[in-house]
Design brief:
single chain; alpha/beta
Length: 540
Amino acid sequence: MRTARFIGSWAAGLIALTLAVSLFVQWLQFALAAGGGGATPLLLWMAFGVNLLVWSLVGAVRLGDDTVRGVAARRALRRGPRRRRPAVGATENSGAEQRVLVRARPAEAAADGGAAGSGPVSGASGGTGPVAGGVQDGSPDPGAALAEADGAGGAPATAVADPEQLAMAVIIPAHNEEPVIDGAIASALRLFNRWDIYVVSDSSRDATADIAAETGVNVLELLTNRGKAGAIEAVIEEFDLTGNYDGVVILDADTELDERYVEGARRQLADPTVAAVAGFVVAEWKPWERTMVGRLISAYRDRLYWMLQYLLRFGQTWRHTSTTFIVPGFASAYRSSVLRRLDINPKGLVIEDFNMTFDVHHKRLGRISMRPDTKAYCQDPFTMGDYVKQVRRWTLGFWQTVRRHGVWPSLFWFALFFYILEVLLVAVTLILISLLAVFMLLPVVTGGAVLSAGWYATAYGAVGAVLPLTAIAVGLFVPDYVLTCVMATIRRRPSYLLYGLFFLPMRLVDSYLTLRTIPQAWTASSDGRWKSPTRAAGRL
């Protein structure tokens, strides 16, 4: 059975690749033969974009640079293998299992399996703070050596000989995430010790906090809804995570980490010039758990993530560029000395990850790193309503961050300016051409009745002379669908050939929301409170 699936997946990939090449060649022939040669560059630009081309070339250069550096590093290791040292703050008999902090809960739950040998530790809090807090007396502080080296000024850390020495905490902010919180925690437990995992339940009304507490990880429960940024800020302050750890990983409650994530994040943070590590997002693919609309959203996001990361951010996160404008909040890692200097929860922003990334660049705290070996899996929206809400929140958060930080002279803003310019031009052009397509389609639908109006007939003739209906339809659809065929080849998922028929309308939705949220960034304000979308249990 496994062999048959392997052969079938590769056969599907070859079919999709053949279809992609064939469609692209026929599209070029059609565009030139139909006299649409003048519109061909415009339509190609709308499908692929100049930014993707430029940063793909930079990414190719980075790939060569990384290869050369990797070979040199392996040769250096063979000449003089480094000596392994115990992790910071760890001793041979550190009694680490005594360092667990959990939310106050029944004693029988606390005594479960290796969670804690001495029961929960309660702390005092007031107002809108946590109901439990504090670190158990006598427990060693992970990352104490680096915390002392950083000092009060938050100076950049020195290089670490062994990345495994980097002590890292994991924060999982959650609000009403009962269906998925256990999957996120289980994923983190495969890679981290339970006493290094901190779940902050932001005034959840369901069993989120209880489920987290049963796993034996640290749980902080807020009595009032502060939003994701406020929850992150609260748990960092409550447990002094930036003082006790070298780095902090922030995960969404629906995120599951790849088995190589920690190794990759530590290796990148071992470079003292790296301020933050952007997780490499992979869209989950569980079609049996989704409706047709849900599968369409997941497939569309998979294509989008692949293009943005391999063709854009890979080049933007090269050591000589570092111009990426987002460290995705679903799975990010920050150096503690950098995190202490960030304004995590400024007033009025709807999301935090754009702002934190801009803050790193604006304060010149270091570079952003991203590598494909730091993968994490996310759960995309299941319904079109949740999808629209999520995209609106993302685009609004981006424009709010641009408004808040303004412009400053830097390579970051040079690259960001041309990215914003292209995004706006593509969005406007895509919507206008789509409206022209509707305008040209009305005579067909009405049997030519609308042409009885003189002004309509004149405009119809003028538009048809430049962009006939067939040229609009084929010119817009085929280049976009070719990208889908390429993605179906890479992912070896033939079902993408079906879902790809509807990706162009999805792009129209994205374009509309991109333009719609621009004025809202100057008129709307958010308290940061969140509403969790529809979730599905039983993750990867």
